[in-house]
C-alpha cells in the first residue's frame, strides 16, 4: 500500500505503522469486528482511495464479518456519505467477492 512512498517520504510508513496499527488499531476497548465496521464507515464516508478501502474491506472479512455485514455497513453511510462514495466501496467489495481468496490457486 505504501511501498512507493518511501522514495519521497522515508518516514511515512513507520509513522503509519506506528500510529494506525500499533497505537490505534491495537486498542481493545471495542471488539475487532466493531473496530472494522467503524473503519469501513469512516473510509466510505471520506471517499478514501481504493487501496485503503480494499485493504480494510479485506481486513473486515478476515476479522469474521460476512460480505452481507460489510455491504450493510457501507449502505449505512448513504445518508452521510452519499451514493458516489458508497458505490465506490461496494464496487470494491464486489471485486473482492469475485476474486479467489489470497493464497488459493484459481485454476483448481
Please give a structural write-up:
- With 108 residues, the protein is an all-alpha fold.
- The protein has helices at residues 12-25, 32-46, 50-62, 67-75, 78-81, 83-98.
- α2 runs antiparallel to α3 (50-62), α3 packs across α6 (83-98) and α4 (67-75) packs antiparallel against α6.
- The longest helix is centred in the last third of the chain and has 16 residues, at 83-98.
- The radius of gyration is 15 Å and the shape is globular.
- The model has no long low-confidence stretch (mean pLDDT 87).
Give keywords.
single chain; 108 residues; mainly alpha; 6 helices
Shape: globular
Oligomer: single chain
Structural class by secondary-structure content: mainly alpha
What is the helix/strand order?
HHHHHH
* Percent helix: 55-70%
* Unreliable residue stretches: none
The beta-strand count equals 0
Could you give the distance between the termini?
Answer: 28 Å
Mean pLDDT: 87
Total count of helical runs of at least 4 residues: 6
Strand content: under 5%
User: Biggest sheet: strands, sense, closure?
Assistant: none
**Mind telling me the C-alpha Rg?**
15 Å
Amino acid at each position: 500500500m505504501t511501498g512507493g512512498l518511501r522514495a519521497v517520504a522515508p518516514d511515512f510508513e513507520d509513522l503509519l505503522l506506528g500510529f494506525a496499527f500499533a497505537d490505534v488499531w491495537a486498542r481493545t476497548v471495542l471488539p475487532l469486528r466493531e473496530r472494522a465496521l467503524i473503519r469501513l464507515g469512516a473510509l466510505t464516508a471520506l471517499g478514501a482511495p481504493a487501496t485503503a478501502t480494499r485493504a480494510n474491506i479485506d481486513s473486515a472479512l478476515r476479522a469474521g464479518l460476512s460480505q452481507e455485514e460489510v455491504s450493510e455497513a457501507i449502505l449505512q453511510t448513504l445518508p452521510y456519505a452519499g451514493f458516489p462514495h458508497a458505490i465506490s466501496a461496494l464496487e470494491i467489495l464486489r471485486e473482492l467477492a469475485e476474486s479467489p481468496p489470497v493464497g488459493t490457486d484459481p485454476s483448481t
